[in-house]
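Here is one chain, start to finish.
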Amino acid sequence: MAETVHSYCVDSRPEQLQCFLQDQSRVVYSGIDPTSGSLHVGHILPMMCLVHFQLHGHQVIPLIGGATALIGDPSGRSTERPHMGEATTHNNMLELSAAVEKFFESSRDYVSKRIPSVDASYAPPLVMNNIEWFKSLGVLEFMRVAGTSARVNSMISRESVQSRLNSQQGISFSEFSYQLLQAYDFLVLHEKTECSIQIGGSDQWGNIIAGLELIGRTCGTLDRAAGNLDRAYGITTPLLTTSSGVKFGKSAGNAIWLNENLTTVFDFYQFFMKTADDDVGRYLKLFTLLPLEQDKTKERIAQTLLANEVTELVHTAEGVKRAKMITRVLFGTDVSVLNAEDVLGALAGDRRLFTISADEMFGTTVMRLTVSHGVTRSASAAKSLVAMRGLYLNGRTVDGERRVQPGDLIDGRLIIVRAGKDKHAVFSLRA
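Its structure:
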């Protein structure tokens, strides 16, 4: 899973990290900037790295960047990030901290089912926030610690800085200094918790190196000959793209969130169900704890396996159950096997569920229902859909004049409407 390992120690090699980890339990951290109040699927990879460290008895620290988010990381950006207000950042910090805690709670249940031999008492994550040390840190103190140890020629040589220096917009001083802030995080965690390993995406390489250099210059005064020099390592993970080159986790320009209020369990499940055949084997290795031979599973079956595993990892087994129920409701052909209570339970809070009055249910056409509830864009679009026989009621095509009859209701309570290939709605009769 790791792409690159770096240590500031003299003559360091990647195999040194393996010996370092086998020697005793270590502390590992990965940063998460609260640029929003939710995690998205791009966060799963670094957090799964932390889960793997947990499984081997190490302490992990998901670090919320409550302070650094106010500056903005230039890594991977061609322009400066819009500055967020302190109130927005604070709210994001609170929501993101809760989201991280929830992920690790869910992942623990997931782990216990796949690896029963794992000690149930393995260390829970220590969620921290760098606002804890930056809020009271004076600029002079920061410059004495981080500024005097930094070398401008090294800072300028970072890829993230070079790409911006060569751009039309250039780079602001605050963004240029961002690497010192992240380096200071690593130093503080190293001193407070004996944290010795940082994990980040490959675009974080320069920032991670800055932290290793700061630790080396600040803590490297011990007797080298006696072997007492502290060690610190950096690990980067690849920035994921699909086989077609699209950034992983982006769907029509929208992120796939781990927060069910932003991305429903069904949409989350379907995102992985739609994984390209060229990508599914790689994702099974990265996002699940299944044996490696599982990535050889036949096409489409592999997608189902991936969707089941990652949905359970994030949304628990109950989330998988709900996603499968909604899949059967929306894509099944035999509505006679459906139970209204199960359908409504699975769709609770889903944007596809509409509760309407009897007057609306029976007093208007199916076509008009799709327009009034946004299932189709407009009346003309709905008419075109009907002309192409693309409007369905409970799995059967209907014409533009078709109204819902009491006998259409599933369990006397609801109907399922499909507009085109993948636009669905469930209309429930208000009690």
